[in-house]
Amino acid sequence: MTVVSIIEPMFTRKITYPHGLPALIGLAILLLVIAGCSPTPTPTALNAVVSATSVPPTPTASPLPSATATLIPSETPTPTASPSPTETLTPSPSPYPTLIVDERGAAMVFVAAGEFLMGSEVWSGSEKPAHTVYLDAYYIDQFEVSVGAFAEFLNEMGNQIEGVAGKASWVEEPDPDLHLHRTDGIWQADEGRANHPMNEVTWFGARAFCEWRGAVLPSEAQWEKAARGTDGRTYPWGEQEPTCEMANFAGCFYDSVPVDSYPEWVSPYGAYNMAGNVHEWTNDWYNADYYANSPSENPTGPESGDYKIFRGASWFNGNFQTRTTYRYPKLPVLTYMANGFRCAKTVGE
Question: Global pTM?
Answer without folding.
Answer: 0.73
